[in-house]
């Protein structure tokens, strides 16, 4: 049963909470109008009271109405994300507090690029960063120098770019500082050692440099700053910087084979090059820490610098969680040997699952307590991974995915706010002196630190208000991911029953046990051993689950998505295992057909909060498997 605590959270599949939302929108629109009227009420209205009667006014209104009606009509062809019949991509209904906060804030139009343009919402963005930091176990007390910092981005893609940018700045800073050679600071002994400083040590070096600078006269300080700036990678560019330090070489990034394609984009955009992104093999679709270690060993031997190791919390295709605890352990193990790198966690999808692991007082919840709520979530490795998030150097998380908020809300977090000084656009990396220790004062000039410029203050308000209404712990926001994990468990039960019903007619397998709420199904008609034929069968099934612009929405019973398993990603062992479980002939894989170099499978995102019986006697998961049975049976009746 859907938890009653979720009943007021959404507009609802049927628009059940329409009066609530309508009241809020009208109330706060009026409130906004009063605010306008109270700013110099002595000014006479600029638009005459009789203006609405003018022909030009009426003509304009008519045109506007016509276009809006056309738009509204066209939007009826949208994908029904809000419906429990939508189990396709990573999107669902929107949380009312966020939606209302967006509506409310839009007419004020704050621009979170800086304080001047957003006197209210810029602080909400900085606070939203602290709320998310707490969710991951980072230090969230802004009076502490090592407090975390987070800001919003247009999405996870930009947050991942920011992670690359910060890791590179931290890697290159010690090299520049060594070259500038301020006296009296303990500097790395050579370029290579400098380039292999860990992020934590680079931050310590930055702090030492700033403390030293503060002891200099204003004129000397300016001169030393200019001297350092001239040596920085951000000044010289990657080519010139590496040219001046030939012992270094291009830094490499390791990411799991499940990595989102934003990593490839980021490597290109940063000028690091796609070839420097190396994908580490998986086991069970989780990054294989042993395989990573072998690669790191090669890097050390070949003097190959490593910029970052990326772990994914909730992979885009399979919902799996990488062993973050092993990645941070690897960082600690390899640093003293001379290989320093950053650990970034791409939790764009799975980040909000951390609410389930968080006590209201901020502590990590014990595994045993969590196990009482679920059949087998979380796996001990997943609990260990989430417990290690606070040790990652930076994290990406998308409020517009499992945060159930409107698009335009991703977030980047870094463990220690002092690192952000290296990204400041005007290279004013003295914060202990003139900008003062005040955390908020410093970050209110947000535009100096972020990749973007003008940005939505309304989006920040939506994120902040939502986290206030539903604090990011298991007792509050956690009700949402709890529902979706329970739905995933119910999906697995229903899938097992479906498989049993179709035994002897259809092989139905879950190729990877999901760590979260994304679940895939591999389906192959019994007797078929040909990969190409199975793929055609699954594509035909998927056609019935995908958006068709030529048909009314109502013609679709369900919306799902699909993905493919490629042998070069899966690796030999997993490829063999999956083929065998579906009774496919390995010889037919990549045998020359158009569609036989991969396995096509169905993919389901179970984030709608009303998938389980919510008291109306309907389980959409059961309905879905009934539908799948009908479709599969009909398709199998047609000779291929
Ligand atoms: C969705 C996703 C991204 C990209 O985020 P956008 O918000 O679409 O830019 C990156 N990484 C992972 C793991 C994702 O799931």
UniProtKB/TrEMBL annotation:
Tree of life domain: Bacteria
Domain (L-tyrosine decarboxylase C-terminal): residue spans on this chain: 511-617
One protein family per Pfam: tyr_de_CO2_C
Protein name: Pyridoxal-dependent decarboxylase
Keywords, sorted A to Z: Lyase, Pyridoxal phosphate
One BP term from GO: carboxylic acid metabolic process
Cofactor or coenzyme needed: pyridoxal 5'-phosphate
An example Gene Ontology molecular-function term: carboxy-lyase activity
Location of N6-(pyridoxal phosphate)lysine modifications: 401
The keyword Magnesium is annotated on this UniProt entry: no
InterPro entries xrefs: GrpII_AminoAcid_Decarb (IPR050477), PyrdxlP-dep_de-COase (IPR002129), PyrdxlP-dep_Trfase (IPR015424), PyrdxlP-dep_Trfase_major (IPR015421), Pyridoxal-P_BS (IPR021115), TyrDC_C (IPR049373)
């Amino acid at each position: 049963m859907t938890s009653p605590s979720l009943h007021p959270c959404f507009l609802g599949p049927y628009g059940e909470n329409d009066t609530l939302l309508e009241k809020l929108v009208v109330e706060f629109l009026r409130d906004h109008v009063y605010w306008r009227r109270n700013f110099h009420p002595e000014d006479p209205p600029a638009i005459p009271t009789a203006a609405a009667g003018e022909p030009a006014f009426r003509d304009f209104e008519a045109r506007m109405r016509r276009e809006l009606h056309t738009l509204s009509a066209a939007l009826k062809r949208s994908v029904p994300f809000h419906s429990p019949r939508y189990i396709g991509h990573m999107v669902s209904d929107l949380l009312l507090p966020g939606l209302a906060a967006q509506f409310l804030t839009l007419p004020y139009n704050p621009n979170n690029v800086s304080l001047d343009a957003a006197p209210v919402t810029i602080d909400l963005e900085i606070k939203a960063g602290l709320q998310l930091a707490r969710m991951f176990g980072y230090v969230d007390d802004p009076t502490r120098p090592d407090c975390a910092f987070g800001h919003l981005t247009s999405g996870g893609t930009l947050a991942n770019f920011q992670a690359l940018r910060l890791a590179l700045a931290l890697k290159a800073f010690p090299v520049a500082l060594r070259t500038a050679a301020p006296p009296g600071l303990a500097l790395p002994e050579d370029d290579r050692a400098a380039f292999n400083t860990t992020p934590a040590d680079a931050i310590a070096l930055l702090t030492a440099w700033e403390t030293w600078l503060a002891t200099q006269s204003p004129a000397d300080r300016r001169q030393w700053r200019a001297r350092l700036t001239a040596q920085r990678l951000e000044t010289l560019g990657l080519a010139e910087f590496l040219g001046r330090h030939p012992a270094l070489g291009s830094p490499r990034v390791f990411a799991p084979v499940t990595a989102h394609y934003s990593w490839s984009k980021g490597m290109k955009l940063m000028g690091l090059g796609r070839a420097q992104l190396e994908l580490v093999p998986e086991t069970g679709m989780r990054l294989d820490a042993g395989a990573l270690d072998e690669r790191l060993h090669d890097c050390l031997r070949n003097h190959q610098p490593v910029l970052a190791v990326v772990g994914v919390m909730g992979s885009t295709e399979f919902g799996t969680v990488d062993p973050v605890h092993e990645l941070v352990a690897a960082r600690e193990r390899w640093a003293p040997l001379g290989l320093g790198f950053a650990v970034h966690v791409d939790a764009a999808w799975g980040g909000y699952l951390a609410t389930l692991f968080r006590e209201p007082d901020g502590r990590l919840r014990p595994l045993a307590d969590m196990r009482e709520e679920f059949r087998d979530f979380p796996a001990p490795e997943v609990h260990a991974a989430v417990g290690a998030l606070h040790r990652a150097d930076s994290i990406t998380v998308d409020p517009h995915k499992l945060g159930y908020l409107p698009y335009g809300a991703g977030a980047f977090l870094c463990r220690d706010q002092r690192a952000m000084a290296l990204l400041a656009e005007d290279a004013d990396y003295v914060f202990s002196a003139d900008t003062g220790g005040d955390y908020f004062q410093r970050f209110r000039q947000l535009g100096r630190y972020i990749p973007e410029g003008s940005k939505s203050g309304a989006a920040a308000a939506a994120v902040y208000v939502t986290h206030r209404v539903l604090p990011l712990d298991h007792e509050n926001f956690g009700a949402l991911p709890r529902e979706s994990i329970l739905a995933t468990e119910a999906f697995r039960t229903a899938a097992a029953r479906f498989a049993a019903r179709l035994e002897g007619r259809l092989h139905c397998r879950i190729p990877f046990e999901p760590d979260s709420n994304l679940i895939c199904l591999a389906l192959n008609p019994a007797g078929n051993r040909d990969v190409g034929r199975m793929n055609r069968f699954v594509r035909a099934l998927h056609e019935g689950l995908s958006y068709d612009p030529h048909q009314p929405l109502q013609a679709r019973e369900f919306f799902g998505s699909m993905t493919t398993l490629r042998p070069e990603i899966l690796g030999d062992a997993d490829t063999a295992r999956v083929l065998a479980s579906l009774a496919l002939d390995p010889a037919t894989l990549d045998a020359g057909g158009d569609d036989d170099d991969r396995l096509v499978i169905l993919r389901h995102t179970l984030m709608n909060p009303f998938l389980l019986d919510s008291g109306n006697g309907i389980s959409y998961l059961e309905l879905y498997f009934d539908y799948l049975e009908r479709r599969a049976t009909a398709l199998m009746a047609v000779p291929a």
